[in-house]
């Protein structure tokens, strides 16, 4: 192997700013009753929505948590049955069954949230901060005339939240003093659902159908569902993977990314990429990690040929262990890495592939 140096100086300091007022219209006064907007697939609730329930739990110890599911067909009913027993803190499952909600378009979903809120008057509405929640929640907030608090990573009181600002370089504490409902998107990596909280045997919440007879179509909605393009892969989902193997511009081509895919297969890991790698067309943009991509916090994050720009760090700096391989000893990624290897990735990856056993 060529000469390499191991360096490992981790400094992931973030500044904490004092609490600031987010809005000042009038305080939320009563106990929390929270609506969690849930995303479902294949008859079960997606993991980030379970994290949203976990976050809702921290709003108030007496919080009553309802989950809203929408869609149509047998998979919706299956998901509703799953939702009823997916988490002991869910006290009710609301189901909106209509072809309008077949696809996650913001317009009909936002109208649905407005309708449900007008009837149930929840104190809080929470969704995970993925593309689903980020698409729907702000529009619903506009219809309800409130300002959402986004990307919450910590809840200390029912109206006091911590969220990252300046691409994750500072943490800001905000107090929501607006009108009902207080609407939040939460980072699922900060509210991991506990394994024992998904015990399906002990708990069954009641399921009720949302009456859609007064549902108003959004007449100004301009988006249209065209098609879903998704990659068939046995690798874990990037957002929830325990190990993430990320490649940057240093990989140089789409062809070279295949090495990284092999490594991910051996490690049972998800593949991630920097924006530069995505922009260069090496991989599709759903693999992008960072400020404008996915936020991940796996147990192990391996970065190959990644410089460590702040916009990339914003998406992975909370990973438990960070390993970086870069030929430039001054690359900023080494400032957040627990283990750093100064070396050529075109030597390191083949050597790793050779030494790691095949996955059973
Ligand atoms: C508003 C905004 C939002 C952004 N959002 C994101 C985001 O979400 N995610 C994101 O990633 N970026 C984002 N960016 C872009 C970001 O600023 C950087 O440009 C990008 O992260 C750089 O990607 P990179 O590290 O792959 O490329 P580079 O910065 O070009 O780094 C490539 C690295 O590879 C190393 N290298 C080269 N060859 C080898 C080799 N053979 N072996 C080992 N190492 C090698 C080099 O030393 C270098 O450090 C955003 C930028 C802006 C302005």
TrEMBL record:
GO terms for biological process: fatty acid beta-oxidation using acyl-CoA dehydrogenase. Keywords: Electron transport, FAD, Flavoprotein, Mitochondrion, Transit peptide, Transport. Its cofactor is FAD. InterPro entries: DHS-like_NAD/FAD-binding_dom (IPR029035), ETF_a/b_N (IPR014730), ETF_a/FixB (IPR001308), ETF_alpha_N (IPR033947), ETF_asu_C (IPR014731), ETF_asu_C_CS (IPR018206), Rossmann-like_a/b/a_fold (IPR014729). It comes from the Eukaryota. Binds 1 FAD per dimer. It is found in: Mitochondrion matrix. FAD binds at residues 249, 274-275, 288-292, 305-312, 326. Belongs to the ETF alpha-subunit/FixB family. The electron transfer flavoprotein serves as a specific electron acceptor for several dehydrogenases, including five acyl-CoA dehydrogenases, glutaryl-CoA and sarcosine dehydrogenase. It transfers the electrons to the main mitochondrial respiratory chain via ETF-ubiquinone oxidoreductase (ETF dehydrogenase). This is Electron transfer flavoprotein subunit alpha.
